[in-house]
Amino acid sequence: MSEIVQDGTLVSQVMASIRDRISARNLLAGDKLPSIRSCARQMGVSNSTVVEAYDRLVADGTIQSRRGSGFYVSGHTAPLSIARIGPKLDRAVDPFWVSRQSLDARPDMLKPGCGWLPADWMPETSIRRALRTLARASDDVLVEYGTPLGLAPLRQLLSRRLAGHGIVTDPDQILLTESGTQAIDMLCRFLIEPGDTVLVDDPCYFNFCALLRAHRANIISVPFTPTGPDIDTFARVVSDHKPRLYITNSGIHNPTGASLSPQTAHRILNIADQHDLIIIEDDIFADFETTPAPRLAALGGMDRVIHIGSFSKTLSASLRCGYIASRSDWIDQLIDLKVATGFSGSNLAPELIHLVLKDGTYRKHMDGLRTRLSHAMTGTAKQLASLGIRPVITPDPGIFLWCALPDGIDAAQTARNALANGVVLAPGNVFSISQSAGNLMRFNVAQCQHPKIFKVLERAMRP
Amino acid sequence: MSEIVQDGTLVSQVMASIRDRISARNLLAGDKLPSIRSCARQMGVSNSTVVEAYDRLVADGTIQSRRGSGFYVSGHTAPLSIARIGPKLDRAVDPFWVSRQSLDARPDMLKPGCGWLPADWMPETSIRRALRTLARASDDVLVEYGTPLGLAPLRQLLSRRLAGHGIVTDPDQILLTESGTQAIDMLCRFLIEPGDTVLVDDPCYFNFCALLRAHRANIISVPFTPTGPDIDTFARVVSDHKPRLYITNSGIHNPTGASLSPQTAHRILNIADQHDLIIIEDDIFADFETTPAPRLAALGGMDRVIHIGSFSKTLSASLRCGYIASRSDWIDQLIDLKVATGFSGSNLAPELIHLVLKDGTYRKHMDGLRTRLSHAMTGTAKQLASLGIRPVITPDPGIFLWCALPDGIDAAQTARNALANGVVLAPGNVFSISQSAGNLMRFNVAQCQHPKIFKVLERAMRP
């Protein structure tokens, strides 16, 4: 009993562990729990700690005791909780933290941690014009389902745009999706099953991990350098763990802003060929580039590289539309999956996007945006430097600065402090599978235009 | 060798069986195939048939022979193909047949087999007006992400509409999704895992099965009667197979057009309580009802009934937006799933839908639609009767007539014949897990307005 009295948290830990196993459905309703003795051995606690934990779980109805037989999980099986499938992280460094804080932010909050541009940087005049044009479109555009592949003129335009990056795809090899995220989600359903190993960069876009957790993939990572993944580690990890899939950004890597070098691209493709690794190249920031990075889909062709993108970052997050460019045989099977899981798409967002993209003003909008981002990058870097915050990588202008905080400052704690003062930050560990970015932080330079941000940041970093 | 010469199809069968096991990923790249002898024994064919099949699979690169060691699956692991996960059905009665034929149909094709209204039955004037209004909306509506729950005024309006059906939900218990199908898809991800058993009606909406196959659920079914599932069979099947989930339509059941009786609803809920069964009530046809059926979510509350819907059928298939009404604790976890798998939604379609729904003309549109459907139902039934085709169930006017073809006429063959003449039909077995509806067919009365349909149908039924 002394152990319990001394440390009630041991009992809580045992309870949490059982609850997690029920949430993750490793234990189902009616399943027998391990015996007191074996649970104690497994968790390295005393029998009496387990007795107390089981008693409390009986009291709250989670488990039931059957006399002479043992303990069993109670009737209601909890639904699958993706928050519980992976390791239970502190909410401040949970991959959902930034998404949900950014998406749920009150209008008066400042969001240097979010991944998109401020509303007034977007081509709203063109979108308004497109909406008025659409109000005069034919009936079927307004009320009918789109075809499963999606609006043909937009796919033709995408095919030409991809050709500009050296990526050769027929319009029929392009499948429109609801968003870039949904494109990756659909591909994960198509390519992996629970327990399959998937490789990501460390750091990488936090939602890759949230998404892969929802697929119950085994996530492994390789350190990311200013020219792409550390290629020797990449080779070793691929050879050792035989991942099925590698997800990455070639141009404007999220969160580092780095670009893949041609040499690294070439080596990635050779390693992938050797080990039958499929690559998803997520290119949603393509239009922000000033000097285009090489694309894996251009170098390696579509045999094992799948290229995806969307318009959320450059045009409008409200016009939900992404795309998958891939091999014809895979596209045909992906159509079945699209119909099964979302029926068909709509032509509405694709029509609006097509109207805006073919509008001559879009190119001018993007030129202006790149100039504006380049200034914002310089200005933000200077402001951050004055607080002792320095970029780890000096990117080709894009939207992200991946920075080290002054020594000893914890990014997660800083983010929590800043949130209390109306500023949403993106602490490094939400991007890091290895949790090795506790001192780092991603800044979206377009969202760093308000002086209040740097005042709050300074205060938030104080011990 | 005589066996091969006599019946080359045996070799093809062995080849197809190996290919299916690779597609379904029961055999992975590098896995060893069963020995010639053991494969022959398993499939009940001669050794020489297997030798020939393996030789041909080596020739086309599917497998490799390693001298002295045996046969191995070649390098590229095929992606998961949902078409192959379930039983390989004849394409004419594959659940995707109707979807893909309807969605890909050329404009001149007639589609009595599809599940939605013709474009000119939809409230296009209201939609055009809404688009013009939206062209004047504030920036953030046009270019920003929506909140994860989705547009608040639409959720408030939905909450009031649901209250009209006796379903009590707070607006914060309603999560907007990309579509009704996506709502069910998200719930399946949340509630089931591969191998879990899910119960559906027989017949049921074909896409339930396509969707459940994509989740690799074990699908079981209960015969559907004019008042709901056959309740004694339902009780027995639930008790024997302990399904985790039951998916159904309470009002205007697809494909039968039937409505749940209050007594059956009550018994379903009691059985569900007894066996911890969760129910998804898909209510997308709600607004077509003339006499509302009881709703399981109204009778049983939200504890184990999840209510979903969309606007694709009554307003516009192009305004992609569905919703999930459920328990608060589940909604909160579903938000994480929505963010992980699709990031956030857009406000665009929800804003348009909200504008149309709150427009006074929507109610008038729906009143007109119900009258028009009621006339179409009478007219179609008469036309079908003249061909010897009779409804199995006489529905409260809705959009579907579930009919028996004359004795001895095969619906799948009839559908194939009609397709060759530009008419997409919906043969019974695409709706039937037990494949017991070979003589039945679903007609969408709103899509049966062209006389050509009945001429083609008559010819297509000729032996």
Tell me what the structure shows.
Chain A has helices at 2-6, 8-23, 36-43, 47-59, 82-85, 95-104, 124-134, 139-143, 152-164, 180-191, 206-214, 231-241, 262-275, 296-300, 328-342, 348-358, 361-385, 411-420, 451-461, and strands at 63-66, 70-73, 174-177, 197-202, 218-225, 228-229, 245-248, 278-282, 305-310, 322-325, 390-391, 400-404, 426-427, 440-444. Chain A is α/β, with parallel strands linked by helices. Chain A folds into three domains: 2-81, Arc Repressor Mutant, subunit A (Orthogonal Bundle), CATH 1.10.10; 90-115 and 363-461, Aspartate Aminotransferase, domain 1 (Alpha-Beta Complex), CATH 3.90.1150.10; 123-359, Aspartate Aminotransferase, domain 2 (3-Layer(aba) Sandwich). In chain A, the strands form three sheets. In chain A, strands 3-10-9-8-7-4-5-6 form an eight-stranded mixed sheet, sandwiched between helices. Chain A has a four-stranded antiparallel sheet with strand order 11-12-14-13. In chain A, strand 11 (390-391) and strand 12 (400-404) form a beta hairpin. In chain A, helix 2 (8-23) packs across helix 4 (47-59), helix 7 (124-134) packs across helix 16 and helix 12 (231-241) runs parallel beside helix 13. Chain A is globular and about 75 Å long. Chains A and B meet through helix 6, helix 7, helix 8, helix 10 and helix 11 of A and helix 6, helix 7, helix 8, helix 10 and helix 11 of B.
Layout: helices, strands, pairs:
The structure is a homodimer of 463-residue chains.
Chain A: H1 2-6, H2 8-23, H3 36-43, H4 47-59, E1 63-66, E2 70-73, H5 82-85, H6 95-104, H7 124-134, H8 139-143, H9 152-164, E3 174-177, H10 180-191, E4 197-202, H11 206-214, E5 218-225, E6 228-229, H12 231-241, E7 245-248, H13 262-275, E8 278-282, H14 296-300, E9 305-310, E10 322-325, H15 328-342, H16 348-358, H17 361-385, E11 390-391, E12 400-404, H18 411-420, E13 426-427, E14 440-444, H19 451-461
Parallel strand pairs in A: 4-5, 4-7, 7-8, 8-9
Antiparallel strand pairs in A: 1-2, 3-10, 5-6, 9-10, 11-12, 12-14, 13-14
